[in-house]
Amino acid sequence: xxxxxxxxxxxxxxxxxxxxxxxxxxxxxxxxxxxxxxxxxxxxxxxxxxxxxxxxxxxxxxxxxxxxxxxxxxxxxxxxxxxxxxxxxxxxxxxxxxxxxxxxxxxxxxxxxxxxxxxxxxxxxxxxxxxxxxxxxxxxxxxxxxxxxxxxxxxxxxxxxxxxxxxxxxxxxxxxxxxxxxxxxxxxxxxxxxxxxxxxxxxxxxxxxxxxxxxxxxxxxxxxxxxxxxxxxxxxxxxxxxxxxxxxxxxxxxxxxxxxxxxxxxxxxxxxxxxxxxxxxxxxxxxxxxxx
Length: 292
Fold this sequence. Notes:
alpha/beta; Nitrilase/N-carbamoyl-D-aminoacid amidohydrolase; 6-stranded mixed β-sheet; 14 strands; about 25% helix
């Protein structure tokens, strides 16, 4: 029988502005919004669900302010991950839960916790590539580069990997996820018009093609006060190992994007396009050097 896995992506706008709400109020409002959307995913039979990057608040890297350090929590022992473990168990749903992680005081990461369908914590991915460029993407003020490599996680339904937003511009990690056995790679993101519109439908479909796996990528929607530096354009989608987009969200609405992924297609694609067989790692040594 074919291995069909129903997967979901959530794209959502921020609820409360830090101009008028405390950080705990912002967090609570966004979690409440997502619990409704997660419930909708359960009703649709979603088996693996990804939330968006830093899902429980605005994209606060639009400014450099130490108040946002209060948004950090331990992983997996913080309140958000613990809550989502209960939610995952309730719905029998594996989940990718991106949060702002505190490893120790002053040591923070952009992290995604991965939960299995019984609520167990499978592990975490820490964003490896940290931008500090363009207006309002000041992430080096908040996050250390990840130090966990490119792990994959064997959920009840599929083996999955995670890449986060800016990571997607670096194909090396995408290949590592494939080499480690990922069948689906989830890429939670936060990106705005004028920066990546022309790349959005190219880079991640190309990653799927080059590595012979499925990609599910999600992006928040709307403008976020008080910064209003750009509009997050949603357009979350799933694509298959041929790069074909299977389902895609709108540019401006809170939405759950759902697709059925046939994991047997991976073997068929890789039998045709023998990229793993024909790799030449013996010739790639220079790629790991800072200066040639």
